[in-house]
Amino acid sequence: xxxKDLDFVLVPAGLLVMSVYHxxxxxxxxxxxxxxxxxxxxxxxxxxxxxxxxxxxxxxxLAVQTxxxxxxxxxxxxxxxxxxxxxxxxxxTAHNNNNNNNNNNRHTIGITFGExxxxxxxxxxxxxxxxxxxxxxxxxxxxxxxxxxxxLINVPYNKxxxxxxxxxxxxxxxxxxxxxxxxxxxxLRAFYFSFPLFLWLFGAIPMFVCSVxxxxxxxFLDVSVDPGWVADTSITITTTDEEYN
Length: 245
What we know:
Shape: elongated
Strand order of the largest sheet: 1-2
Strand content: under 5%
Number of strands: 2
């Protein structure tokens, strides 16, 4: 098999491996959340929001500071993503100008190993650019939800006499916090996806190897090894819900 044909075999295979893994992870998060780190963190964030809203005068500063730290993390990733997107756009423009000056629109030898067609190299750069743009948008949405939650978490609902739905309000605020965390995770996943695509510049084999290695690494980061104590707390949640009903 020629080297140029490897792109049509190994690149789709690498993307398929990563896609299948994330579909499986999404299924686990939806059906068995206590077996995943994302699901466990979501449950614990709900407990945290409820405890922070019990007495806003004592825990208000802690809650806002914690959410501010999350906003700073999302801001850092968003800034990095848009900076890398600009860099990729500059590289694409410089590459096209270089080809036009040399009157060589057919093949080029750049930072990649071997000859590359102009269209194929443009697709590689564009794929990396899309990953960084998606990461930027996801982190902006994360900042949006964290900003909403930082205001809502300090509203003194216990002091409002005509308000009798404090429990539903805590659920709404915890949903905003969880959505901010989910968007942050998606932005970080887009960064992860950019690594195999970057190695695709050096060939299809490095891209496929990086995809397989990335899936193994993410598996150990995403799967919870000891979810038993969360199962006990879920029983407590059910009991509490029955009491409210």
